[in-house]
């Protein structure tokens, strides 16, 4: 789609139906009112929740019901802010949701302390003796494990009150990159104008005219830099907010809290170390690209250029749906049927529209009852197809989960594994069915975020080192740190004046330690797709892991799926190199 349409200008079948959740904004308001009143039910258990198993069960049943309602309120409110970043009513509902979330946190703030006081032995005796309590055993085990990090009820209530304030820097960063971003225009080689948004930038940087690519790159950074000091301050506050939360909860750092005691810090370090010590495939990639472009030195505006001449295939959304369903055949007919059902129900917001959030190419939203939706900015190309297939992996995980609302639909740390499995299956299908191999492998190569993920891990670690040393995170300091990491980990790319602004392009509003999930996800996803194709992994085993959702520990999931994460990273590096062999 060459022009960005208005939302009303799109046919209804390409817009999601928020009415799946609530018939109208007023219905959302009514549910929010009822939710606020229901919190008294949770408060009523304070001081007696661990008197006996029946009381604990009654509290958890009510808690789960309320948690499920909360997730529906959140998804509907978030859909509103995604489809129109300037909609003040949608923003107001999101603010109200955050307030309700804080009130719910306060309403159950006594629970962790009560469980810790009762002790594991007493709680486990309740589980063994009380019919129906077993379904909450994984949630209770997690809460008991977290007992060492459970502040007092008073502190938890204060944290709940501060949630909105602590999250404010992230919202500021999102606003700066979306609603308050005045997209620049640049002149094309044919003298027409191109508007550079976070979405169109990706496509424009694949244009064959190098001077034009440079104009696109610099115009986008120039516009971001208009608020460079504000971004730097907001990012600093964002990082310190995460650190403050972690400290209050008794963790050594924000990373320690992100890993949560269920992901070995040594494994986290090993993932990064394995990639940093094996940059040769990336260096080879950049060398091959330099030769392909006929340039001595690659610059940032060259690095997104394809290896393959000519335009890749155009893939309308309806065709994309057929492709994805077919690509998922190794997961079984029942799985494919569920995908088709989801796609037929207007749960996907397909195309970029004016005022829509464009910072991300795709996002899956899901309630704790498995009601899933996809936010896309679909551009009818291979890269968009991959993002669509990826986000559909998240949605199918939610749809498949049978975990309680208290456990959640996604297991800790594995949230990206199954979406990248989708991508790897897609690559195999496209190659096997005659799609142009060069374009497919070129796209697949760019969708293996091993190196970019580890660069972000390194950048965040370096930035936290500045904070720990008491150094202010100015825009200049962030820029210097960013370029240092890029130079160390992007062999074959030249960084010069102006490139220090590149940190502003990143997803600054996300959890600062999110990127290890992508390193783990892409590696394990490639391994799982290979095992499925070879028959070494039964689809039923895969489905079983999805069904357990957040009730399953990462170690148990790795064991069931036959995965060793470090080996998976090593193998993924080999896959990356193999794609280069095909493209060379």
TrEMBL record:
Give yes or no: UniProt keyword Phosphoprotein. no
Which InterPro entries would you find in this protein's record?
Answer: OligopepF_N_dom, OligoPept_F_C, Pept_M3A_M3B_dom
One GO biological process term: proteolysis
Oligopeptidase F N-terminal domain boundaries: 119-181
Keywords (alphabetical) are: Hydrolase, Metal-binding, Metalloprotease, Protease, Zinc
Where does the Peptidase M3A/M3B catalytic domain start and stop, copy by copy? 204-564
Q: What GO terms are given for molecular function? A: metal ion binding; metallopeptidase activity
Kindly list the cofactors needed: Zn(2+)
Region annotation Disordered: residue ranges?
Answer: 184-204
Instruction: Give a Pfam family name.
Output: Peptidase_M3_N
Q: The organism sits in which domain of life?
A: Archaea
Gene3D superfamilies, per the entry: Oligoendopeptidase f, C-terminal domain, Oligopeptidase f, N-terminal domain
**UniProt-recorded name of the protein:** M3 family oligoendopeptidase
Question: Which species is this UniProt entry from?
Answer: Halomarina salina
The lineage is: Archaea, Methanobacteriati, Methanobacteriota, Stenosarchaea group, Halobacteria
């Amino acid at each position: 789609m060459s022009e960005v349409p208005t939302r009303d200008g799109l046919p209804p079948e390409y817009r999601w139906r928020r009415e799946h959740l609530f018939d109208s904004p007023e219905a959302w308001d009514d549910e929010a009112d009822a939710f606020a009143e229901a919190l008294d039910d949770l408060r009523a258990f304070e001081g007696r929740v661990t008197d006996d198993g029946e009381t604990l069960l009654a509290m958890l049943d009510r808690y789960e019901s309320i948690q499920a309602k909360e997730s529906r309120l959140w998804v509907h409110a978030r859909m509103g802010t995604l489809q129109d970043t300037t909609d003040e009513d949608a923003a107001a509902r999101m603010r109200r949701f955050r307030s309700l979330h804080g009130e719910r946190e306060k309403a159950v703030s006594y629970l962790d302390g009560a469980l810790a006081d009762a002790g594991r032995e007493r709680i486990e005796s309740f589980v063994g003796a009380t019919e129906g309590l077993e379904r909450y055993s994984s949630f209770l085990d997690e809460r008991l494990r977290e007992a060492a990090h459970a502040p007092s009820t008073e502190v938890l209530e204060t944290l709940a009150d501060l949630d909105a304030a602590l999250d404010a820097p992230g919202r500021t960063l999102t606003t700066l990159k979306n609603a308050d971003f005045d997209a620049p225009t640049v002149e094309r080689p044919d003298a027409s104008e191109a508007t550079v948004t976070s979405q169109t930038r990706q496509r424009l940087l694949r244009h064959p005219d190098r001077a034009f690519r440079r104009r696109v790159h610099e115009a986008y950074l120039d516009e971001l830099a208009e608020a460079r000091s504000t971004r730097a301050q907001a990012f600093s506050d964002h990082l310190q907010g995460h650190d403050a939360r972690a400290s209050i909860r008794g963790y050594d750092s924000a990373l320690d809290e992100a890993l949560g005691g269920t992901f070995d810090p040594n494994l986290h370090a090993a993932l990064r170390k394995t990639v940093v010590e094996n940059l040769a495939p990336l260096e080879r990639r950049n060398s091959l690209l330099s030769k392909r472009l006929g340039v001595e030195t690659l610059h940032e505006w060259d690095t997104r250029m394809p290896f393959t001449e000519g335009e890749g295939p155009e893939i309308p959304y309806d065709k994309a749906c057929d492709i994805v369903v077919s690509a998922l055949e190794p997961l079984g007919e029942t799985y494919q049927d569920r995908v088709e059902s989801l796609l037929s129900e207007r749960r996907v917001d397909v195309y970029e529209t004016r005022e829509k959030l464009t910072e991300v190419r795709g996002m899956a939203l899901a309630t704790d009852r498995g009601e899933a939706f996809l936010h896309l900015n679909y551009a009818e190309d291979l890269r968009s197809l991959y993002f669509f297939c990826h986000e559909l992996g998240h949605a199918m995980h939610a749809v498949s989960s049978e975990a309680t609302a208290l456990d959640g639909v996604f297991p800790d740390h594995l949230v990206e594994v199954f979406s990248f499995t989708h991508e790897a299956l897609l690559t195999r299908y496209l190659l096997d069915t005659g799609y142009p191999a060069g374009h497919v492998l070129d796209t697949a190569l760019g969708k293996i975020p091993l190196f970019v993920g580890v660069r972000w891990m390194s950048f965040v670690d370096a930035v936290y080192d500045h904070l720990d040393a008491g150094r202010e995170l100015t825009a200049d300091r962030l820029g210097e740190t960013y370029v240092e990491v890029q130079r160390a980990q992007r062999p074959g790319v030249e960084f010069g004046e102006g490139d220090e602004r590149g940190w502003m392009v990143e997803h600054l509003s996300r959890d600062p330690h999110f990127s290890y999930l992508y390193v783990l996800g892409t590696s394990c996803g490639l391994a799982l797709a290979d095992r499925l194709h070879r028959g070494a992994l039964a689809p039923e085993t895969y489905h079983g892991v999805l069904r357990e959702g957040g009730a399953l520990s990462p170690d148990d999931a790795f064991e069931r799926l036959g995965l060793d994460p470090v080996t998976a990273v090593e193998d993924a590096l080999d896959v990356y190199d193999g794609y280069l062999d095909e493209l060379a």
